[in-house]
Amino acid sequence: MNQGKERVAIICGGAVIGVIASLLVFLGNPGNMGFCIACFIRDTVGALGLDSAAAVQYIRPEIIGLILGSTIMALAFKEFSPRGGSAPITRFVLGFFAMVGALMFLGCPFRMVLRLAGGDLNAVFGLVGFVLGILAGVFFLNRGYSLSRTHKLSALEGSFMPVVAIVLLVLLVVAPDFIHFTEAGKGPGAMHAALVLSLGAGLVVGAIAQRTRMCMVGGIRDLVLFRENKLLLGFVAVFAAALVTNLVLTAATGHAFFKLGFAEQPIAHTDGLWNTLGTFLLGFACVLLGGCPLRQTVLSGEGNSDSAVTILGLAAGAAFCHNFGLASSGTGPTANGMVAVVIGIVVVLAIACANTFGGRAAAK
Length: 364
Known about the structure:
Blueprint: H1 3-26, H2 37-47, H3 61-76, E1 83-84, H4 88-105, H5 109-117, H6 122-141, E2 151-152, H7 155-158, H8 160-174, H9 195-212, H10 216-226, H11 230-253, H12 272-289, H13 293-301, H14 305-323, H15 335-354, H16 357-363
Antiparallel strand pairs: 1-2
């Protein structure tokens, strides 16, 4: 595919994803949360009983669909390639703190774009922090940051996340007693589109993301490093399509799918400083990982065990945040969450230095 056709494919794919994301909110998902990889992993972790936050307990079919949609496309185009073994502990830790940053802001990069498209101006602070975090990561990339090389693995290793996705789907459908789920309190876990619609949306978005390689972190990173904007155009298209869809839905239904302002935004807080610092940590960690949570999820469906380890780190981070009061809420960040973000920035900075300047010292 030449560059022109590739750009058109990414823009069209982003537009389709933006429409799907807004329609999922119309169909029952939380406001400005048609898709949020961090939030959906958190909800799934809660559903499996790994945290006690009753408001966020639901196995999200969208995550299952993202993984399986990616797997199906990778197999169809002979791109299923089991690989891994690149600094798994480091990737787990980076994933953990990426989730700490995401739950301080209350959203992954995907949801940040959707919050902007819904008129949530708090996400502007998130975007600023996210870009600054990516720039911090690019600083180290330019100076030689690198994790160890990946290696070819067995098909069994590469099938880990697709198999997990299938097991989660079975559990969701069968709903045995040990799955934690509540409609009480009308929290985010109680707000969801129908299972079939959510799963179908996830499959479509996973397939598109696999073919287009969409990644917001990669888009901003490539723009800075190589003056290449094709990946970023995909998320511009997501924003534009979601914005238009939200405006149409607002006009058609009278419900505020688009509400411009800072106050009373769905599942968001107005603390600009900690929104910025949370997404700074998120962007910084994701650059060092090589991709945003969406990209990591899609890669795990392609057989990449490094991305699977990253997702496990995200999941552990989500459980830790809700078990120990680190996650923000609509009333704002917690003191524990603030401390965790600062610690996370220090840890991610140490990882960046160790794998940049430490590597050179070892080589010498």
